[in-house]
Amino acid sequence: MVEFRHLKTLAALRDAGSLVEAADRIHLTQSALSHQIKDLEDRLNCSLFIRKTKPICFTSAGKRLLALADELLPMIRNAERDIARLAGGETGRLNICIECHSCFDWLMPTIDHFRHNWPEVEMDLSTGFSFLPLPALARGDLDLVITSDPEPKTGIEYVPLFSYESVLVMNTKHPLTHHRFIQPSDIKPETLITYPVDQARLDVFTRFLDPAGIEPNHTRTSELTVMIMQLVASGRGVSALPNWAVEEYLQRNLVTAKPLGEKGLWCTLYAAIREEQVQAEFMQDFLNTARDITFRNLPGIKTA
C-alpha cells in the first residue's frame, strides 16, 4: 500500500511545513500532492496529519511513516550512489569557488557530507572576492561557482539551489523598526554596511536602490557576518543580508529585520557549472546534497 513516492512526499511535507512548498520541492502541483496524500490515506484508512495546522501536525500513523522514510530514503540514496560508482562515475575533480560571504554556514557541512560519500573526488575551495571566478570556470580552472549573480556565458549552466529573501537589518531601537517594509528612500540617510564586494554585484544596489536613483549617505564594509551584526546592533549602520543568515541574531533580539519593498526582495543562489560536467554523477550528488542540507537547516528559504 505504501510506495516510495509516498515516503518522499511525507518527508517533503514535514521539512517544508506547508503543502505549497512541499509541492514545489518534489515538482508536483499542489492539487497532485493533495490527491497523492488522500489516496494514501484511503489505502491505509486513516489520516496522516491534522489539516489546517501550522506547523503541520502529523498523526501517530503519519509519524510512523516518517520514521520509515527517514530509514529508507537514505538507504535508497546510498544505493543509487553505489550504482553510480559501479558504472564508472566515481572519480573526478571538484574545485569550488563561492561569491557568497554568508554561504560557509551551509557549504562546509555539504562538503563534509560529500567527502564522506565520494572520497575519490579531489576537492578544493576558494573565494571569488579577489578575482573573477566565472572566466576561471569557463577556462576549466574551476568546476563549480556558487553565485547569486548569473552572467550569460557560452558553455556555462546555472543550476538553481534555493531562493532567499534579502532583508534590511537594523538596531532594535532604530526608527525604521516601526515601518512595515523599507522603501529605497528610507536608506538614503543611512550608513549601509556591506561585504567588501563591488556594488554592481550587490542586489540591494542593483535591484533596489539603483532603480530608484538612491544612494545611501555612507557605506562601509566588513568581511564577516558576525562583525556586520555587531556594527548593526550597536547602531553603526544598517545592512541588507539573507534572511537565513540573520535568523540567529533575530531570535536573540540583537537586531530587527524588515522586508526590502512591499513584496520583499527575493534572490536566487545558483551553482554555475560547465555544461559538459552538469550530468556527472558526483556533480549531481553534490547538488542534491547541498539542497538537502540547506532545506533542512536554513530557515526562510524556498525552492528556486
Describe the structure.
Its main location: cytoplasm. It is found in: Cytoplasm. Residues 2-59 form the HTH lysR-type domain. The chain contains eleven helices and eleven strands. It has three domains: 4-86, Arc Repressor Mutant, subunit A, CATH 1.10.10; 89-161 and 268-303, D-Maltodextrin-Binding Protein, domain 2 (3-Layer(aba) Sandwich); 163-266, D-Maltodextrin-Binding Protein, domain 2 (3-Layer(aba) Sandwich). The strands form three sheets. Strands 3, 4, 5, 6, 9, 10 and 11 form a seven-stranded mixed sheet that branches. A two-stranded antiparallel ribbon has the order 1-2. It is of the alpha/beta class. Helices cover 42% and strands 21% of the residues. The mean pLDDT is 90.
Summarize the structure.
The chain has 304 residues and is of the alpha/beta class. Helix content is 42%, strand content 21%. It contains 11 helices and 11 strands.
| Total domain count | 3
CA-based gyration radius: 22 Å
Largest sheet: 7 strands, mixed
Strand content: 15-25%
Order of helices and strands: HHHEEHEHEHEEHEHEHEHEEH
CATH topology of the largest domain: D-Maltodextrin-Binding Protein, domain 2
Structural class: alpha/beta
Count of DSSP strands: 11
**Number of contiguous helices:** 11
CATH top level assignment of the largest domain: Alpha Beta
Percent of residues in helices comes to: 40-55%
- Calculate the terminal CA-CA distance, rounded to whole Å: 32 Å
CATH superfamily of the largest domain: Periplasmic binding protein-like II
